[in-house]
Amino acid sequence: MSSSRAKIKCLTIVAEVILEQRILDDLRACGARGWTVTSARGAGPQHRQISDFEGGNSRIEVLVDAEVSERIWQLLERDYFPDFAVSAWLTDVEVARPDRYETRPN
Amino acid sequence: MSAELLTASIFSVPVLAFALGIIAALIRADLRLPEAVYQATSIYLLLAIGIKGGVALREQSLFEILGPVGATIALGIVIPVLAFFILRAMTRLSRVDRGAMAAHYGSTSLVTFTVALVYLDAMAVSYEGYMATLLAVMEVPGILVGLLLAGRQSRHTSWATATREVFTSRSVVLLVGGLLIGALAGPGGYEKVEPFFGALFTGVLALFLLEMGILAGRRLGSVREAGWGLLAFALLFPLLAGVLGIFAGAAVGLSQGGAMVLGVLCASASYIAAPAAVRLALPTANPGITLTTSLGITFPFNLVLGIPIYWAIAQAVIA
């Protein structure tokens, strides 16, 4: 059985839960076609969040090509890193059925 | 203030549960309401208050509530402005932090309101049934005025977004939705859900206050960092705003109980709707300051001392 595999990027973002919807809207606008969100708990150096009330953090994982990951990264640097408790990291991953993660033509 | 009034507030089960929560936090006990339970109880409380208020609203003519609603909107605008300028005199907070504080103190606290109703119910004091409507009205203007006073801070949050976030916040949607459900269903419809939304209410409130106590207790440690000016503000401003509310209530013809509840609405600070809106619209404001004062100082003060004080003042003001 033949299988298609390809190397793409996995961008993981951990942010205050109140930012979740805003980040997901931005991901879609940058060209991401899907993501996985899980609830997360933890501590960071800023201690500026209000997570006690709003349910901690969200961990958002998104599989995208290098171009989209760069677009998202620039947006995070501009809109989120300065003021919000957000962590983000980028990893190389190998995925099956790479066409699932191709950028949607705009 | 008589000892009896004070005892009625301190020795109610919800307030004692709140005290237990604070103690649990101070001794670092392994106690937290699961996140889903906390969310569910807050939805329950908002909906229950909305529905009960809606049933009462049905009995009122629009004309009767116009005065109190108008007064509430006016108070929702005046109180954050007062808070903003008093903070400038009393503290060295930045403009953004003062705006954030104004948003918190201009909005209101569902739980303080609810405990005030439980307090009046325990003493068999009557109050206008439409007070929950005033609660819903009071939620919004204070936050918006506070954001305005802070000036436009976030590069990426437009006024339209911030306003939409306030109006579509969980508390506003559930309160207004509950009011409509109650008004449409009427007393007959309410009777069917009363065992759930009425009879269980004080018990659920106690559970919610246990969690609030844990959260408030965790904030107590940072009270010292807040400084004397903020501490004094968090204790004195509620009294000023509360008295303002009681006089306004008297002026628009509310009963003693109703004026006291309007006083409580003015005196209490938001720590659910306001923090979320402020966090998004004023990301540079320090939530540590606003949450420590509103939740760690003002909330317990109102719960234990404020409520009997406002009741005593309402009795003195309205013959």
Quick gist of this model?
The complex is a heterodimer of chains A (106) and B (319). With 106 residues, chain A is of the alpha+beta class.
Identify the notable features of this structure and list them briefly.
heterodimer, A: 106 residues, Alpha-Beta Plaits, 3 helices, 27% helix, globular, B: 319 residues, mainly alpha, 81% helix
Structural description of this entry:
The complex is a heterodimer of chains A (106) and B (319). Chain A is α+β, with helices and mostly antiparallel strands and 106 residues long. Helices cover 27% and strands 34% of the residues of chain A. Chain A has 3 helices and 4 strands. Chain A has helices spanning 20-30, 51-54, 66-79, and strands at 5-16, 36-40, 57-64, 86-96. Helix content of chain B is 81%, strand content 0%. The model of chain B has no long low-confidence stretch (mean pLDDT 89). The interface between A and B is medium-sized, with 18 and 19 residues.
CATH topology of chain B: Na+/H+ antiporter like fold
**What order do the helices and strands of chain B follow?**
HHHHHHHHHHHHHHH
User: Oligomeric form of this entry?
Assistant: heterodimer
With strands numbered from the N-terminus, the spatial order across the biggest sheet of chain A is 2-3-1-4
Low-confidence stretches of chain B: none
Radius of gyration of chain A: 15 Å
What count of domains describes the coordinates of chain B? 1
Structural class of chain B: mainly alpha
Kindly, what is the distance between the CA atoms of the first and last residues of chain A, rounded to a whole number of angstroms? Answer: 33 Å
Strand content of chain B: under 5%
Helix and strand content put the structural class of chain A at alpha+beta
Largest sheet of chain B: none
Mean pLDDT metric of chain B: 89
Largest sheet of chain A: 4 strands, antiparallel
